[in-house]
Design goal:
The chain has helices at residues 4-18, 23-35, 37-68, 72-92, 110-122, 125-134, 146-170, 172-181, 183-206. By secondary structure, the protein is mainly alpha-helical. It has one domain. The longest helix has 32 residues, at 37-68. The chain starts with a helix and ends with a helix. The relative contact order is 0.23.
Length: 208
């Protein structure tokens, strides 16, 4: 079982990253707006399977890596901190497009919706970085089985991501209308998430 503060910190990072626009969010929102909530939720099932694939692969890989190469922890820690800083910069930089900007998508079958959700997640660099650079830093070999800790952290990330994305997919149309009428809210959200991710990156970089 990971330490409580590690689990909370990783959950906060997961929340911050899922609220930062990326391929998954943009695809789910566009699909939900153009084809309806049901299509968005089917696509989300594909995204969930992509998360499970990454989690299992990373959990076994992390177990082997941390036991074989002690200094790999520091390399992953620095890499994860740099990636969070990059996300923070992209959140606050000017010229970014809102993920609630409607894209026209064709009407697809449930099977294709699921497949597209899966492929979008498997090709999402943000998800790969979560499991390859960020998750290992919250695994403490002194707290018990490394594989078990990795799976618990992974399920926490999946639960948070699916909950937030399901809410966004169901309310995509309403949120798009709200933000279109109140652009200041989108600016506040961008700077808030940029500040949170930047603070977590600094904490991660200096913590031993």
């Amino acid at each position: 079982m990971p330490e409580t503060d590690h689990l909370i910190a990783f959950s906060l990072i997961s929340l911050g990253m899922v609220l930062t626009p990326g391929p998954n969010m943009i695809y789910l929102i566009s699909r939900s707006i153009s084809q309806g909530r049901r299509a968005g939720m089917i696509s989300l099932l594909g995204v969930a399977c992509g998360f499970l694939f990454y989690m299992v692969a990373a959990a076994f890989g992390i177990t082997a890596l941390l036991m074989a190469v002690p200094f790999a922890y520091d390399a992953l820690r620095i890499g994860g901190a740099l990636y969070l800083l990059w996300l923070a910069w992209n959140a606050v930089r000017s010229g970014g497009r809102s993920p609630f900007h409607i894209r026209s998508l064709p009407q697809d079958s449930p099977r294709r919706l699921f497949t597209m959700g899966l492929v979008t997640n498997l090709l999402n660099p943000k998800v790969a970085m979560i499991y390859l650079s960020l998750l290992p830093q919250f695994v403490d070999p002194t707290q018990g089985h490394i594989l078990g800790q990795s799976l618990i952290l992974g399920f926490a990330q999946i639960s948070i991501s699916l909950s937030v994305n399901a809410l966004i997919a169901c309310m995509a149309g309403s949120i798009a209308g709200f933000l279109d009428a109140r652009p200041l809210w989108l600016t506040v959200q961008r700077w808030f998430m940029g500040t949170v991710l930047g603070g977590l990156a600094i904490r991660m970089a200096v913590e031993r």
